[in-house]
Amino acid sequence: MKKHQITIIDIAKKLGISKSTVSRALTNNPNVNPETRKAVLEMAKELDYQPNMLALGLIKNETRMLGVIIPDIQKPFFAAIVSGIQHAVARMGYRTIIAQSDESPQIEKENIQALMLSRVDGFLICHTRDTRNFDQIKMLYQKGFPLVSFARICQELPIPKVVEDDFNGLYTTTQHLIERGRRRIALLSGPKHLQASKLRQQGYMAALRQRGIAFDGDLVVHTRFLAENVSNALDHWLSLPEPPDAICTIYDAGAVQAMQLLKSKGLRVPDDIAVAGFGNDPAAGLVEPGLTTYEQQPYEIGVLAGKHMLDALKRRFTDVPPEITISEGRLVVRGST
Amino acid sequence: MKKHQITIIDIAKKLGISKSTVSRALTNNPNVNPETRKAVLEMAKELDYQPNMLALGLIKNETRMLGVIIPDIQKPFFAAIVSGIQHAVARMGYRTIIAQSDESPQIEKENIQALMLSRVDGFLICHTRDTRNFDQIKMLYQKGFPLVSFARICQELPIPKVVEDDFNGLYTTTQHLIERGRRRIALLSGPKHLQASKLRQQGYMAALRQRGIAFDGDLVVHTRFLAENVSNALDHWLSLPEPPDAICTIYDAGAVQAMQLLKSKGLRVPDDIAVAGFGNDPAAGLVEPGLTTYEQQPYEIGVLAGKHMLDALKRRFTDVPPEITISEGRLVVRGST
DNA sequence: AACATTCCCGCAACCGTTCCCATATGGTAT
DNA sequence: ATACCATATGGGAACGGTTGCGGGAATGTT
Q: How far apart are CA A282 and CA B137, in angstroms?
């Protein structure tokens, strides 16, 4: 039942030559008679020979596989990044193994472990919302794996990173809201410890400061990117003696949820309260009114991350200082502001 | 620079025993002294030994990797399926390598070829919109690869398949539109040769017939799931002497695009024309009015496909007749009808 | 005391390749 | 004729594990 796998030895036997010669013929080694090569190639085709990458990988100690660690492939942002990574590295014959952490640091850890055992040639990592302990990724670094960190980056390691235009995004968006005459601008932020949250909040605060608007801690709420967080934030803000006239969020999904909740409470967007997002997810163009948002191009982020990885693989052990790449964005103004 | 990889031989040397014993200790082989095992395990931990899956795969002739071929990970439908597959097979220690065909049969072919060389243990395939030639997948079948076909299935092969509730979906949706008083119901279909297109159209026609509504060929347009197809279809329908009072689509994205085009033409949904979709993509709940659609659960489809694969891997070469699984759906009624 | 049994362990083959080294052959310069 | 070189090929070690086989020591049986 179990068919015998065709190997170079089969070809060698059929042709009455040694497997060394077959190997050379197949790998375009110049030290082989053109006629012999021709015969080998023909026989290989006839027997439908398929080289065994496992054996090759064992010798070369490489698999041409890259591990991609993301929280959730169902989020359009990550799906686009993954797509970009794949297309970028496919050119060089690399394939990607995608592992979802489901935002669980524990699963993330297991995934990294498993992919390490599978001997992937490198890792592209976007850690979970709750990852605070970077031991796993540090361990990879120490073991010498090529590493690229994207979106939610690990700042503690000198590795290539690709991030969104965090500071600028919220700076621009907040500025836009101020220009629209808003003064009580709330900020729906992310987990406190995330670098992206911090930078975006800094952008928000810089815009306020520049326009001489006092910062009000009551107007900032940190979320874990969950729907219930948004609901609670809104309740909090609307119960303030002086509720906000605009809500700025650091992620589109939160903005969309906020808009729908506001609508269900009978509040009009943007008349009663303006809403702005970050990312330009597909949803931003679908809701009514359209969501003003700072556009990011996750596909491009993926491509950049993939290129960094290819560089790292090429110069392996060459110690070139790693770059941090910022993917530029732009404000897309729609009806919500 | 290139660090020496820790192998069982290193452990054996340190302990002054043979690599066979180390191997046995590590693989829970009973023929090894408990004390020896303990020593090996400790030494393995101390040296931070990582088994080499390539070597193991070479012996066992398996990689515990599955190839997943999909058109586009950025479509929410496929992202959810992929997620389901991953979670289903991860339990049994399998990992998935995802390859996007970008709806190109040529790239699909190359991907299958490449994954075959990578020696994946099986394939889960959703072929492209334009795949008419199943030679590649037949070749895999002949070579004895475990195969599962989902969503866009290959009917020519006796392999497990998981499909959406195609016939029922459009039967139910069309019936719903008729109950809402619509009589000129247009159908925005997919590529003619796709089984899913055919079955959905059959469901649509069955509902019409049952209610005694004559079928009008002018009201059916086949698309390639492209935005321009939708635009052309609308122009065609609206120029008819008796334009439709409802549009039924076999995919949500088309319905959403139709709604937006109708809106831009000044037509009201559902007052002037009702719209219904298929799938219940995230977008369906976001547009205004909400899109009535036949809900599918792509995540579940992925889980089912993954389970079929696990079965196939287990019973390899046992020749159990393959099943075709239909993932049930239900109509979600929103404002668009 | 002789023998069988059980328990551990080492030896060596094997998985499918690559690649270094040795060798045979033939041609060319000395 | 000898030395030398290039070219084409074969032999075999290596990559990192698993596994069947056989053997030695310890134990049990008569």
A: 33
pLDDT at B2 over 90: no
| Chain A, chain B: beta-carbon pairs less than 8 Å apart | 112
From residue B142, alpha-carbon distances to A3, A8, A49, A170, B145 in Å are: 11, 21, 15, 56, 8
Helices (H), B119-274: 135-142, 166-179, 195-210, 227-238, 252-264
What CA–CA distance (Å, rounded) separates A300 from A84?
A: 6
Is residue B316 predicted with pLDDT exceeding 90?
Answer: no
In this structure, the strands spanning B330-332 and B292-295 are: antiparallel
Give how far B13 is from chain A: nearest CA, Å: 22
Residue B308 near residue B158 (C-beta atoms within 8 A): no
Q: Region B75-81: what's the mean pLDDT?
A: 98
Average pLDDT, chain A: 95
Q: Do A57 and B54 touch (CB under 8 A)?
A: yes
Q: What are phi and psi of B331, to 5 degrees?
A: -80, 130
pLDDT at B1: 37
Quick one: B48 exposed, middle or buried, by C-beta within 10 A (0-12, 13-18, 19+)? exposed
Of residues B157, B145, B67, B154, the one with CA closest to residue B112: B67
Distance from C-alpha of B203 to C-alpha of B206, rounded to nearest angstrom:
5
Q: What does the alpha-carbon distance between residue A19 and residue A11 come to, in Å, rounded to a whole number?
A: 8
Nearest beta carbon to residue B53 from set A87, A96, A119: A119
Can you tell me which residue has the tokens 């347009």?
B221
Tokens matching residue B187 = 């159908």
Task: Report residue A85 as tokens.
Answer: 């990574």
**Each residue of A29-59: pLDDT tens digit?**
888 999 999 999 999 999 999 999 999 999 9
Rounded CA-CA distance B305/B300 in Å is 8
Q: What is the CA radius of gyration of chain B?
A: 26
**C-beta atoms of B2 and A73 within 8 A:** no
